[in-house]
Specification:
The complex is a heterodimer of chains A (335) and B (569).
Chain A (H helix, E strand, L loop, with lengths): L1 H26 L5 H8 L9 H7 L8 H13 L14 H40 L7 H15 L2 H15 L18 H38 L2 H9 L3 H13 L1 H15 L3 H6 L5 H10 L3 H29 L1 H8 L1
Chain B lengths: L28 E2 L6 H9 L5 E6 L21 H5 L4 E4 L4 E4 L2 E6 L5 E6 L13 H13 L14 E8 L2 E6 L6 H6 L6 H4 L19 E7 L2 E6 L13 E6 L3 H9 L5 E3 L5 H4 L8 E4 L2 E9 L9 H9 L3 H9 L19 H4 L13 H10 L3 E3 L2 E3 L9 E6 L4 H16 L4 E6 L1 H10 L4 E5 L7 H9 L17 H11 L4 H18 L2 E8 L2 E4 L3 E2 L17 H9 L1 E2 L1
Parallel strand pairs in B: 2-11, 17-18, 17-19
Antiparallel strand pairs in B: 1-5, 3-4, 5-6, 6-8, 7-8, 9-10, 10-11, 12-21, 13-21, 14-19, 14-20, 15-16, 22-23
Helix pairs in contact in B: 8-11, 9-12, 14-15, 15-16
The chains are: A mainly alpha (335), B alpha+beta (569).
Chain lengths: 335, 569
Amino acid sequence: MRYLLRRVAVLLLTAWVAVTVNFALPRLMPGDPASNMIARYGGQMSPRAREAIMIDFGLNTHQSLLGQYFSYLGQILTGNLGTSYTFFPASVTSMIRQALPWTLGMVGFATILAFLFGIGLGMVAAWRRGSASWHRESRLDTALVPTGVMLSAMPPFWLAMMLVYFVSYKLGWFPIGGGIKPGLAKSSSAGLIDIARHAVLPAFTLTLIAMGGWILLMRNSMLTVLNDDFVKFARAKGLPNRSIAYRYAARNAILPIFTQFAMALGVVVGGQVFIEIVYSYPGIGYLLLTAVYNQDYPLMQGIFLIFTLTLLLANFLVEMLYVFIDPRIRVEAGK
Amino acid sequence: MKRRIEQGAKSIKPRRALATLVGVVGVAVVLSLALGVTTSARAASAASGGTLNIEMPWGTIADNFNPMVPNGTNAGGTLSCLYEQLFFLNTVTSQIVPVLGTKSAWSKDGLKLTITTRSGVTWSDGKPFSAADVAFTFNYIKQYPAIDLNSIWKGSGLTSVAATGANTVVFTFSKPNTPMFVFIAGVYIIPEHIWSSNTSPNTDTNTKPVGTGPFVLKSFSPTAVIYDKNPNYWMAGKPSINTVVLAAVKSNDTALLDLLAGNIDYTYDAITNPAKTYVAKNPATNKYWWPDTNINFLYFNTTKAPFNDPKLRRAIAFGMNTKLIAQRAYYGGVDASNGGQDAAVTGGQLKAWYPSSLKKLEWSYNVKTAKALLKKAGYKLKGGKLLTPKGKAIPKQQILIGGPGWTDYIVIATMVSQELKALGISSSVVQQPWGSYSTNLPKGNYQLAISWGNGPGPTPYFMDYNDFSKSKIGATGTNWSRFWNPTINKALVTYRGSSDLKVQKTAMATIMQQVMTNAPMVALTGRPNWFDYQTKSFTGFPDATNPYNDAGAPDSPGARLLYLNVHLS
């Protein structure tokens, strides 16, 4: 119980710090949004629109910084993240709600896929190295480690651009960009198929890139565990290899990787900015780019906030999950 | 990649435009109907039908058809397909085109503006349009300052707007302010029967728009808006085309590729080296028309040494090779400025407003003259460095430019820096994000800057008022050179108070003379609208020989004239 309370307290404290930083950052930026908007139009928007824009954006009221801070906190608690400057009068919440499913679907799917494949391959690589012959590396392991290193070092946008050029543009197998063909309804079966077609390349890119890291992590973690005494004991006892690999070694090796996975899941919500830009994918990453481009502070704040909070929450959930998967922590927590 | 930032920058409100004389002048103006006079005869016999395809790098389109929100936050086409203004003011030709208004007249004392509205117009829901809708629109704006995007009421002296008959609206002012016609003409008229009960006009998304325009909304999606012909449009037989599709793409490059491929008919983009990369691919159909509607200036901060000396500024003006700058920055697509009168009058207005008596004050590129002028003013060149008359070396100056990705501004600033070097002034180019740029210019936190002119209009008054008013100096002001003097102030007041063209011309000549003598800024190149089109399927586009609109973006009011004039070829 004390474990739980302590975790909740840490969660709340970090959330508060994140929210406060989020509040402060845009206010340290130079310029006001109205002048900004007029300037971006390069002389085509009349300076006469200034007053009206200030009212629209809610900038005409002069509130003290402390007052602004408390009303910001109040708004966040009620789920009101303000109004987007770029998409005025649409609310930030509605813009995020529009973009989030795209990202969650595509990036989330790719992240989980990359995790499963990466863990699997990493496990096999480590096991083969360990079991096939104690002193000679197996061929699979020899191939997998450099592949993993190469994949995890590859810049995602580069791979994405190569795929767009060769697979989409040259071969024409997949659409060049976007999330769905204009005019198709998202709920129709044709629409769903089209969404899947649009998601294949970005998801493939992400899976490939992210997989490299998982392979390496899992392999290393597994190798450490394989040298542990209890594995040696299991071998000595004559347990079947499969049983040693999966029930003993892998289960222990995966524990430290869970934290990483939680982080990866938390980051999913933030979208994959580069991938989404290259594929013009209508997710959170692309929305963030639009917000930065237009200096749309409320939208940026909203996205960062969601981003931070999901990351914190994912972390928290994993810590809770540990209680179930790691008996040592369960004992600790029970005290 | 040029001007990527204008991706989001959809085009703009109407107000920069209007006939030179009319409206501003007290004469009652009668302009026969027919938008785009020249093509209408041809259009009548031309094939009707067809879908005009347009792409813009908007990313996504908002489901918002409210004509009273800041630019670009409503869906493209709201201002060009659905809603109309009283008059369209063509900045390129200085022509007033009657739309929902047919005539306008100022009273002798300049306190009363009477506008006659068109009869026989219906809203797209079938209800009749009348002067009452016009009066309602203006009084509605008064009630909600958040939608007063043209500052119709704030500080203008306007006291009341009332419909005095089915086709007459009277605007009453407390002080003479004839330039206000331009802003009044540009307001989008909304139906009273729809909006009168709406108490949140700036946040309503108006997804079932009812307007008087030539098209009605057919369908909306975040990537494309489709408009169908309004069968009951007030101009008989128009539009010729059946459908307008405004699609959003993610970048200018995509739109340009589709334009080259003939997939679309029209986009708005500063193409890099248009003659080579675009026209040459198919000269018969790949066209662009980029008329100047503003100017790129070299701004001096006239309140800080060393540029507080008008003699130094004038000498620098002679040292600017504007032709070469325009060539390098725009590959011949945009005109160079010369003479100096451009600082007070934009290109198209010179003929009507620039008196020949000022010719002797003009400048042109000539380094020798520039050096001679410097010498005469007491400046000395020593080891390639310019010394002030007091013998002090001029420290390194900074040239401020804004915006990431505006390669044309980077080129212009770099060239200006080289030209300055030839005169003995060393400088560096500093690029700032919009937030800092838009703060530092009005606050005077700069020495030299490259930027545009503020709020150009149909007569020189509009930009002069923004650029040289004493009241416009300040943190949010538009007088960035911080240059003003009582003579200019008086001339601006005289212009405002008069509806007599002769008086107005004299007033403007006074300002031009002051500006040319003091050179608070140097006009470098024109600043055009970037209209790119493809004549594979349609004809009747505006161009230099038939400039019936201002070459604006597809969602600007001028585009409506294009939609009314193009027809299948």
